[in-house]
Amino acid sequence: MIDFNNKGFFKLKQAPEYAEKVTELLLTDEEIVDAYKTMRDGVVFTNKRIIAVNVQGITGSKVDYTSLPYKNIVAYSIETSGTFDLDSELEIYFSALGKVVFEFNGRSEILAISKIISQHVL
């Protein structure tokens, strides 16, 4: 499983093409909302869960996928970007896992993601 305490993993930039990495994992009624990546790692938000992708090794042939279902979220917080501070942040508390923080650089669909989380949590 991915070490969610390592914040370096979560400096994410929007990259819709990154969603291709998880298409084989999706359920038939599951749709991709948005995708973000760092150098090799990334996060894909669907209408049912968050899929964190951790590419490992020198060649990148080994990949760790962590599925974080929205139904296990007990609380969350978002921080939107501002005029000069373009970063935004999503902090999620999962039952039995604890806190997971995603930091986004530049443009992100943080409000759309928040809405989807709310639909499953409330």
TrEMBL record:
Signal peptide: none annotated. It holds the Pfam family bPH_1. Gene3D superfamilies: Bacterial Pleckstrin homology domain (2.30.29.50). This is PH domain-containing protein. InterPro entries: PHb, PHb_sf. Coiled coil: none annotated. Residues 15-121 form the Bacterial Pleckstrin homology domain. It comes from the Bacteria.
